[in-house]
Amino acid sequence: MSHTKNNASGSDDASWQPEQAAAAAQAERRSRLFALIRDDARAGVERHEDGTVIIPYVEHPEDKRTHLWYARAFLHGDDADRELGNELIASVEFDHACHFCGAASAVLLVEESERLTDAARRHLEAFVQANLAEWMTLDYRFHGANDNAPAGCVTTLALAGEYFDNPDLVTFARERLGDLDRLLNLRGYISECVSPTYSGITLMYLAELAEYANDEDIRRMALRAEQRVWQELLLHFHPRLKQLVGPFSRAYEDDNANQCTIVMMAIYAALGKVSPFNPEAMLFPPPEGTFAHGPWDYQRRSLAAAVAPVYHPPVDLVAECLNRQFPSAVESSCEFIGMGGAPSGQSSVSLYLDKSYGLGTFGSRLWPGQGTPLQLLYQRRELEPEGGIVDQLAAIRSIYPRLYMSEQFDSMYKRDAATISKEVAHEQGVAFTVQHQGTSLLGYVPVMAPDEVRTIRASLVFPFHHSRPDEVRFGDRSVAGFSAAFPDHDWCFVRDGDVFLAVLPLVAKEEERLLCRTRFSDCGTYGLLSFFNQCGFAPHTYNRDELRSFGNGFVLEVGTLDDYGSFEAFVEAISSAVADDEQYANERRMRYRRSEVELELTYDITQLNLRRAAVNGHLVNPAAPLKAIPAVDTLLA
């Protein structure tokens, strides 16, 4: 255990027992959720004259994978439901080698064979056999990105090899799974790690492979990998806030705002009610004010997939994590392939959990797009044991950063819901970060700009869906609501219940005709605390190196009423801190000093290479082994 003091109580779920993770308890929850899914879906069934049967939804009326997910839920109903499930399967028009469809088909053939009609069985067999070569291509090795895809493919290949009595296919699957097993010998986390969506999908596939494969080596490696993914999720689950704390390798808008995620579906399926944010409470029906990155219908289809496996959570680790003491810290590492114009590399993963908050960072996560390099989850007020979901969500808040670039002048274009969603969901920079407990230093490099640029800014995103902060300041000036613009940079302070935040903008380079430097923006569903490199009417065109010179970033300090006694004392303590920030010879050098905390970052802004990350004069080693609550591999030994 690393950096852990036993001076504060842990989870409110001390009553959790291993029996809640037993196969029988999982089966009871699966049966109940399958029934809810069937009851919700029946009204949407469409039978067409050509014999096809679909249950459409708005965005993708003929989504192949979701018909298979739904079919499994219907196969476990009464005779009429089983007939409908088989009709759904037999009428799916497969048009490509989708790994979601492949894994779902292989599991249906292996696990649900007795419930399948001959027509449904032959249809699945033909699809799997026709696409085996596609799932064996190099695209689906464990390269260091999108681990859910190779996990789905290796599950398909292993189960299909045994189903069709093809030992060569089993051997191939065993060797490919070995890539993941070797990674787990070196790293604490897989590459597509701590994703509220995709970690749940990877977990699902590995659980099914561990449960249904006959090959001893495949079962062993699949079980080990499944339990290592469980380890990631359990270590990042805050037992008092009842949610997952980042950083997130990949996340959607609702993931970052801690809505109903696939990971929370899997946690409920495997462990029972350890959180009020479970699918039974959040999907039937969705509470007012909650949202998802797709239609709610799609969320329920995803639930059908997430609840179907028999999971194998490491129950000793579950108990440790649900009852951990505060503060608690985790230090580990991951590695990743190059994406979005950024190189491959390795990164530290740091997580600090205090009683009222959790702060997590990637040291050098070079994934633009869906990456969330830093996330802070905190409790603004006590969670009411019997409070509704909306009340619970109002009690916690997740904040996270985004680098945003646009061909539009930031203040002059229509900020409709779609535009705001794009701003808060899509990351256009890469980040270097160093963290010590509740203090973090983050530097951004822009990498994904439009051809003409009018706006470059970094923002801290505050979801406002269920509550708003109590008090906001810019230096010694109060900010009414969350709306103000300033021509300079200074400490920004936020009081949100008993949690206090301080943010110091660090902007390495600015465009000369900058119209605004710091802005608080109330966008209705979000508040944005933004720091500008560029904000003007004239468009600019930059080559790669010019663009990357516009560094941005911030210092984030987190405190609580218990730590400081008052918001005024917090403001006074933080205001005396010192930050240095300079760029020289294509390097950015950042240093932050406050009382007993000193953080340093040095990185190449052109090649996107981390040179130094240090805490209090000691290097942070991205290759460090996992240091946390007892490791799964120890428990498996």
From the alpha-carbon coordinates, what is the Rg to the nearest angstrom? 25 Å
SS element count, helices? 20
Q: What would the principal axes of the Cα set say about the shape?
A: globular
Please count the beta strands (DSSP E, at least 2 residues each): 25
- The helix fraction, in percent, is 25-40%
Range of strand content: 15-25%
Query: Which stretches of 5+ consecutive residues score pLDDT under 50?
Result: 1-13
Largest beta sheet: what is the strand line-up? Answer: 5-6-7-8-9-12-19-18-15
Mean pLDDT: 92
Write down the oligomeric state. Answer: single chain
Most strands sheet: 9 strands, antiparallel
Structural class based on helices, strands and sheet pairing: alpha+beta
- CA distance, first residue to last residue: 18 Å
Walk me through this protein's architecture.
- The structure is a single chain.
- By secondary structure, the chain is of the alpha+beta class.
- It contains 20 helices and 25 strands.
- A 9-stranded antiparallel β-sheet has the order 5-6-7-8-9-12-19-18-15. The protein has a 7-stranded antiparallel β-sheet with strand order 10-11-20-17-16-13-14.
- The radius of gyration is 25 Å and the shape is globular.
